[in-house]
Structures are given as C-alpha cells and as structure tokens.
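Support case: user asked for a sample of complex input and structure output to validate their parser. Sending the pair below.
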Amino acid sequence: MKVLVPVKRVIDFNLKVRVKADQSGVELANVKMSMNPFDEIAVEEAIRLKEKGKVTEVVIVSIGPSQAQDTIRTALAMGGDRGILVKTDGPVEPLAVAKLLKAICDAEKPGLVLTGKQAIDSDANQTGQMLAALLGWGQGTFAHSLELSGSDVKVAREIDGGLQTVSLRLPAVVTTDLRLNQPRYASLPNIMKAKKKPIAEKSPAELGVDVTPRFKVLKVSEPARRAAGVKVKTVAELVDKLAEAGVLS
Amino acid sequence: MTALVIAEHDNKTLSDATAKTVTAAAKVSSPVHILVAGSDCAAVAQAAAGIAGVEKVLLADDARYARMLAETMETLILSVAEPYEAILAPATTTGKNYLPRVAAKLDTPQISEIIAVLAPDTFERPIFAGNAVETLQAPAGKKIITVRTTTFAAAGSGGSATIEKIAAAPDPGLSSFVEENLSMSARPELTSAKIVISGGRGLGSAENFKLLDTIADRLGAAVGASRAAVDAGYVPNDFQVGQTGKAVAPELYLAIGISGAIQHLAGMKDSRVIAAINKDSEAPIFQLADFGLVEDLFKAIPELNDELAKRGIGQKA
C-alpha cells in the first residue's frame, strides 16, 4: 500500500513572527522556513509504517513555491521515497489545497493519506477533512495513535474530553496530533541519498484546479496586548489581590 | 435570511458552546436555527429551544449520530444546508472535525475559529498561534464558520423555539465508533469553568501535578496544563490549554510553573484575571499576568492552600 504525505513549508516554529508595519501580512523576508511540525509527525508515522512492512511506498507532496522542494527533500531524507511539488505563487487556501491533493490522489491512488492536523501559519485545521470529503473517504483527525490492519485503520483521536477511537474503511485520511510520535532527525548519509530521490513537478493548471484565493485578507494586525500587572511579594498578598478582584468566590 | 448553528452536546446536556455560537451566528445572519444531531437527545433539543433568539430547532435523533462522527454529520448537514445563509459550529474537536467536510462539499471556503464578527461577511481570526490576527472578508454566498467560543458571550435563555424532527441522512458507511476514554472528573469542564488552575513543566512529575488538585477542589476550579506538561506525560492531552489545545477564558486563570510559551498564552489570554506563580522572574507569563508571584511553587502551593483555608475561601481543607 502506498501512503501519501502532504507537507507544508511554513515559518520555523521557533521563530517569533512579526506583523508587517503596513498590516499586509507577516514578515517572510529572510526568515527561516521549515516543515510544518504536524506534517513532520505525519512523515515520521508513514516511515514507521513502511519500516513495519505495512506500507510499500511513501510519497511526499508539497504545494508551494519552488523552495518547497527543500521541505520535500527534508521528508525524503527522513525516509520518504519520492516527491511531488505542485508549484504555486502566493497563498493557496485550504479548499484549493484539498482540490489539488484530490487530483493527486486520483492519479496516485494511495491507500492512506497522512498529514498534519493544521499548519502553524494559517491555523485553519481544514485541509485533511476537506480532502477526505472530496474523495468520499473516512477521516481520523487529531490522531494520537493508529493501527493499520488489512482493509481498516483504527485511529485514537485526541478529543476535548479525552480519547476517541474510530475505525475507518481504507482508503482514508488521517491527520496527526502532537503525541502521535517523535519525528527522527535525518542522518547525513540519508540527506545525501535524498538528493538523488525523484521529485516530480506539477502545476495547478495541469491538475485542473483554480487556486485563486476566494477570501480577501483586509489586514493582518498585532493581537491586543494585555498590559503586565503587578508583582506581589507573598502568597497572602496574592490572595488579597484576587479577593479584591472578586474572582475567588 | 437564516443562520444554522450545529449544537454541541453529549446527548444529555447541551454545551454552553452552543449558546455562544448562537451569539456569533446572530451577527452573521438571523434568525438562528439550531441543528441537534444525536441519539436519545430530546432533552438537548429542549434546552436548545430555550436559547434566546433561536427560532427553530431541527432534531435528528438517531443512533448513527450518537458520537457525531464527521462522515455522518456531513451528509446530515448537507441534507438541510440549502436555505441557510450561514452555517456555524463551535470550534471544538467535534465541530472542527465535521464542518470542513460540509464546506468542501458545498465548494465554499471555511472560516476557522473566528474571534469577532466585524460585518456579516468580515471576520477576525487568530493566526500563527495567536501572534497575529487576520481580518478576512468572505466571498458572497454561504458562510461556513467555526467559532472560538471564549470570545463570545452566551446568548440568554427564555426562548421558545419550535422543535422540528428531521429524518436521518444516509450513513456513508466510511467510519464506525470503537471506544472512548474520557477523563472522569467531578470538576467543572475546562472550557466553561469560572476558575482554571493550570500547571506546567515546573511541576516536574505526574505525582507533583496532583498538588494542584487540593486547591482546584477548594475553589471548584478546573485543572489545565501547558503543552510541555502534557508532552512530559504529567496529565492527559485533554488538559492542554493553548492554540493547538483548548482556548479558555475563565474569571481567574492561575498559572503555576508555566513559563508562558506564546502558543499557551494564545489559549488563555482572554481570561479576566490572570495570576502566575513561577520561580523564574523573567518568565514570559509575567508579561501578561495581572498578579505575579516569583516563588518556588512547591513552597507557594501549600501556602496558598493554607491561606485560602485560613480565610474560609472555598469548600474544604
């Protein structure tokens, strides 16, 4: 069985993002970019499935500018087999991403799509669910653990009250949460090997998808800041302040 | 025109996330209808009908909706979607799960986790883990929206909407429920508690994390955690407060041994009063805490418990 892993190139999660002075977006010039951490977990899980012999091929897909190739190479260095880059300019909204991925799934016919539950830039948490709906597949979002067996996959999902396990008929889409696994670092030999792995390039037009944004971003602004309050010296003083604020009843 | 809100519930009780979503919905389109999908959930429909400003409750009561699985919710919502100008769900793990499927099938882009409605087609939502706020204008046509409920007040009670039973939609047969492991707790739910006490990596172990329980029980508070504490295995995932966990906005948020990573702050900065105890005076949490105490938490927690007891605050020792 083949697994398809969509990955997104985003601002590195360790960096503090800065809103541009003209409120047109966030500063992206000369900023370190990395793989979306949730997608990294998806890549790791796909590779583990391959190592267990449950999966034969791990195909990495990214939608983005030509530099998204580096993100695909990172996933190939971790253990992915080959890559597909859908080259786009400018932002692509989740629905358009889902349509592009559907076109790729129609051609590649994977048994499982594994991807992050959300990208840490737009925080939309939509693409996996939309892709599953467009394909007419089941979905296991926010995966905490998963178990592949024959024609089904069991997914334990991180939900508000705890964990929920569902069984999905394959093919299916699974989106990863933080606790699914700890992604590996690529070794130097594997980084070298990844340079020889093939990456096919496609365009949205070839896939028959219009990626023109449907939303208008009016502005991107700094969040409202809370002013720092006061430091208290003792626990008793803290309780005094909280009682005064009327929040201890 | 009309807005449809999808109810959040456990088949017995209507979550107050629903009444909060109604408030957001009424700013987008009115009147507001509510869809209750569940199993043996007539009481939930009754409660929904009592929310002020709600005109009609659609009730799909069928075993296939007991767990509100995304695949069955998709076909049900699509079966009633046509007349509505807007469809909204709370941005809970349930709403986030099914609503994008509906949006995709309607070929309508979804607006996730709105925190404000500026105009019926213009919304604010946090991006980059709350480091920025995006103001979006949606295209003409249906609006599909999930709502971060902590930023909207719950709609009042006293409504008397009609309840209309609707037929179940076809089950696509793609998924089935296996089991649920819910954290059992007598404490209030994290997202609706008046007081939240959260612990971070500073607690050091699952055993130490229990130190928070005494104070939580005394104050009738919910217990939360930072991602670091969850990742370290001190508490289960459903304790996590933050951009990728739960957003909370209690009257009092007491952060103990939490340094204040930006993604944690994104999930609690709307709390009315924030108090922090941390031994590191440079911890970022102090930059937004109303009251900060620089102190070793293992000294401060028992002191806090004694101090509350001394003043007769809370229920028991």
